[in-house]
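FAQ
Q: What does a multi-component entry look like?
A: The components come first, one per line:
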Amino acid sequence: MAKTNPGNFFEDFSVGQVLEHATPRTITEGDRAAYGALYPTRFAIPSSAVFAASVGLDPAPVEDLVAFHVAFGKTVPDVSLNAVANLGYAECRFHRPVVPGDTLRTRSEVIGLKQNSNGRTGVVWVRSTATNQRDEVVLDWARWVMVHKRDHDAPAPETVVPQLADAVAAQDLVVPAGLDLTAYDFAAAGEPHRFDDYEVGERIDHVDGVTITDAEHMLATRLWQNTAKVHFSTEARPDSRRLVYGGHVISLARALSFNGLANAQLLAAINAGAHAAPAYAGDTVYAWSEVLDKAETSAPGVGALRLRLVATKGRDESMTLRGEDGKYAPGVLLDLDLWAYVPR
Amino acid sequence: MAKTNPGNFFEDFSVGQVLEHATPRTITEGDRAAYGALYPTRFAIPSSAVFAASVGLDPAPVEDLVAFHVAFGKTVPDVSLNAVANLGYAECRFHRPVVPGDTLRTRSEVIGLKQNSNGRTGVVWVRSTATNQRDEVVLDWARWVMVHKRDHDAPAPETVVPQLADAVAAQDLVVPAGLDLTAYDFAAAGEPHRFDDYEVGERIDHVDGVTITDAEHMLATRLWQNTAKVHFSTEARPDSRRLVYGGHVISLARALSFNGLANAQLLAAINAGAHAAPAYAGDTVYAWSEVLDKAETSAPGVGALRLRLVATKGRDESMTLRGEDGKYAPGVLLDLDLWAYVPR
Amino acid sequence: MAKTNPGNFFEDFSVGQVLEHATPRTITEGDRAAYGALYPTRFAIPSSAVFAASVGLDPAPVEDLVAFHVAFGKTVPDVSLNAVANLGYAECRFHRPVVPGDTLRTRSEVIGLKQNSNGRTGVVWVRSTATNQRDEVVLDWARWVMVHKRDHDAPAPETVVPQLADAVAAQDLVVPAGLDLTAYDFAAAGEPHRFDDYEVGERIDHVDGVTITDAEHMLATRLWQNTAKVHFSTEARPDSRRLVYGGHVISLARALSFNGLANAQLLAAINAGAHAAPAYAGDTVYAWSEVLDKAETSAPGVGALRLRLVATKGRDESMTLRGEDGKYAPGVLLDLDLWAYVPR
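Then the predicted structure of the entire assembly, as tokens:
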């Protein structure tokens, strides 16, 4: 019998099933440096131990997306190795910052199944939870993927489609313990804009662009122990091009958003995400944001912005999300809906 | 007189000579992260401080190959700067894990010399020993290289050819102090296979492939302070291609072997290694393994597998090592013979 | 109003103005590893905690250029985002080594202004000072850049041209507290050459070459949070080529200078620097040095060499700096004038 992991096929999943994902991973200062080399991030909290301590976070957490990518990467061998498509995610909440020395592991529960009418594939919904070495929840999220059936004649399971919120409600956001933005140093953070300066409906062109290289997206994806072979091998796809991990585009866009959202430093939630088009080496990625909503929190000096973060191939100064046909505009790579904390 | 290092030529070596290699190097958490970005490694012990502690290793060691590459890289300026070819290595034993904070230095003793009949080159055998800041042996190995003579008229030295074992005997393996695999968490490690599940003669196709980029192999080789210029400069070779450091292929193959050998986490020895063909950027590297031998150890829950680890350019599902002519099959890049520990 | 940073234009600067640059940045062991992967550095002090302690530096500092690049990168968004050209720097002194855990921030004072006769651009001189989390000065330097005017009709400011020294005087060098090179381990450091072995006027061909890749120079430049878009985007310049950050060439040349200057481990000052030609991916960078001056210091066993460090595209064994027309020879990329400490 083969000793290698064949991944799970649609008929291997059942509602209520719990998957304990390998491999636990300890976050280190090395990850912080690697992240800073891979993405043009300049957010002051993960960049500076002094700044982080000044807002009540000591030791300084790493970028929230480090935790997201590591936790997400764990699920790939069990959930999406045989995926036809990653269809979406929702209800992702960041429960506490991750600091060097934390060891993350991820567990998923199957919360929905629906066989497609073609009988060859099906959609699997899972809710995944990443915990640290003290079994505290670090983040959790729901995700659904379309997966191949191994045997097209296998019977269809009962259809269960979970109800998922369009967005995490503001009152369900979990502000990091101790976070206090009342003495926030705007000069050190790089921009003067605070909660009241952002208006719902406002769009911000983040201006800068980064051209992707194969070496960089592979270094990043490997760092998160994401094993999907389409990212690493020119022999895994008919066009001989390595597909850029969607999370790489998320991190690029997030880092580019510093220019205009330098104070939206901490992620609170990811409400939804769509990868509208694939990205490849040679693409130059730009980003723009739209303020979707605003909310106060009970933490001192802390507000929350709901933001649409859009990554595009080539700069679109018109910041057009969709064409008249309702489809994503041609250059759109990513449409991400998130909550971030900002100083009030 | 030139102040740069011309390297040693064949007539600069004498049997019994001891070479103290520069530069000592401290291993850090940064090296662990860099290794994880460069290679698709997911072995649980170097990945997770929690997992490592659960098997008696606290703090968590870095990948054994980090120590190997660093220790090996030290020898290049003195031993192989003027090498025509790296002919082989043998009797490499890992004596103790390396943890962040350890400072490695390497010393070599010349143990053999044989001038070639052409009078222009000769073979040099050295035994190298890497020690940590407490002067404890971390690893040692023998290696032989073909080196240019500076002066073709220099007299040939007395021929001394050392006896080297085909493989490290199982009873000579040095199990890391404190290693205890009796409570091994197979779910966290990623695979259920244990010592008894592997049979001598069994072959495992590790399935996944990685396409090499120039940036990545240079980053890796530089990290080990390996200075051989053929790896870094398009002007160092007539074909203007950078030659990939053989150790890069070793680490790629080793990391790919996770898929099927996830529990063979710790290297015990490298018995022999041959780089059957050069590798270049653009090559897609795959790996397969053959179980050559099995041995028990006196440590709790710890067995040892002797494995042939083969890296190929392009996937060879037939796992053919040699053609009918006895030569390596066309795609074979690396033929490595090693011992690794596995849970019983 | 746009929330993104438009950068400062010539008329935004006034003599005496102080700019507090974002973002503070904590140096970590991850930066040390990343630096070692990006540059072929083998200097023993930043490489080995044991070696560093043996010369009185405990904990081991990172490469001095890490501090330089981080501190310099901070000034880009405020000083040179709209620069036409980086014209030069001077009087850069390294006041104390940087160790992991140090958080750097940079402040600049405008010390000179001169509008160009075309009325469209002007030259801005700033003196920048980087401090650590204890408000101790880490390094300071002067720099002048040519910057666009926003409004060509804006009145010219009073011309103020600061007096800057051609070189830092030897007696103004600040030897790191505790540095003692009397028990220096030349074997571990890699070369036997000491202060007395170097003669003024001597030139050293550092022999080795490194071919630049886009991925590597972007990783490096990003690590220093340098945001100049010409380094990252193929769409930022008419020729679709990413311009290599000048500091990347400095670090390449400095690392290559190990071969012949292995004991010139610590930078004391940068007296002047000119980037004679742009560098791009595919260029193979070599380096040579000229000893310009020598000086004793009051620290035990510590001398100082003033060195011209020249980076070239392609190797120039003739080590020609300028042609008969007085202009830089065609292959010259960098002409850097520095002071470094060496054992006596």
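Q: Is there any commentary attached?
A: Sometimes. For this entry: The longest helix of chain C spans residues 64-80.
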